Amino acid sequence: MRSSHTDGLPVSLDHLRRMTDDTGLIEHAIGRIPRRQEGYSTDDNARALWLAYEWLRHARERGLEADAADLARLIDIYFAFMAWVQKPDGWFHNNVSYDRRFELEVPSDDCQGRSVYALAVGMCEERDPARLTAYAQVLRRGLEAAFALSHTRGVAHVVATAAKLLRHAQRTELAEDVAPDFWAFVRQRLPGVLERGARDLVLRFEAHAQGDWPWFEDRMTYDNAVMPWALIEAYALTGEARWREVAEASLDGLLARMRAPEGWLRPIGNRGFAAPGFTAMWDQQPLEIAQLAVACEAAWRTTGDTAYRRLVAECQRWFYGENDKRVPMADPADGSCCDGLTPQGPNLNRGAESTWSYLITEAHVERAFANDLDAARACGACVGALRKALAPARAQRAFGGFHR
């Protein structure tokens, strides 16, 4: 493994590598050390697959061959995990013990939705024909099962997946000789799937929204920004105005609940979450910031509204200490992130979900600002030369400069 000091990427992937063995990404950590007795989750390996492809694109665009090769190795591990845990009916088993035994569970809509989205990212980014053929087989089975999802976040992930695949299928440079049956399936089946899913999300919004509660459910719980994000992606593909209206109204409503009176971002706490008239302050999960960054980057890219671009930078600053405890949550030296922010301060365990949350946020900051340093300075985003100047100082203040 290469040291973070030799990475050409603007972030370190040392902790991601540390948490990954030859089976997959380990779910939890004791501090920075993998907690093997907790095993693996497909949720985390799907997210890691998505993350690795985001940074692989970055590496390819900049000619970072060593980083691209390292990411390709990780990608094969995460995809192999997902192909392994997929059942004959297309469903993905979520929880696996360290000795590779499938644990008893109820099938998860959320896991299925995250899995098909991650595989769709791979299907759109991968270049090797043999790997694409494998992705097409696993993804098609997963999609066939996902068409029956009913929980809100599962539906949202399917909408985002359909939008991504249909957008890719429109590209003139798409190699039709690789997985032609899969792309025929995308063109035939997914327009209807996207239409039904987006309309379903809008109907849920209209059934629950009232007054200062513009939302899809009677509570805001976890991974909240995935619903506005899905509708933004659907609008970007189709131009359906109502989908944009609901996406922006729900995103505004979510932001109203995620904003501290002092002005900084405040993830909805998991000790009660949020409902009309109530918003829990603790504990705050990095996942909420990450999904907000993903949604806001998509909203800025789609609508051109620079307010969303500024929000992407705010999400990054939450990880660097612009939060309720004024403490950094992420360590740029190894790319790890604390599992949550509590009344007593950061939870110093650095598991898979929180680390993904930090690294995917950084990926979307790069997408929003890497080619516009003036905008980065104006919005307070840390990219490129700005990152080299600021991130080490932030890490030293946060962690005392003690890095191995």
UniProtKB/TrEMBL annotation:
Q: Which GO terms describe its molecular function?
A: transferase activity
InterPro entries to which the protein is assigned, alphabetical: 6-hairpin_glycosidase_sf
Full protein name: Glycosyl transferase
Species this protein is from: Alicyclobacillus mali (ex Roth et al. 2021)
SUPFAM superfamilies given in the database record: Six-hairpin glycosidases
| Keywords annotated in UniProt | Transferase
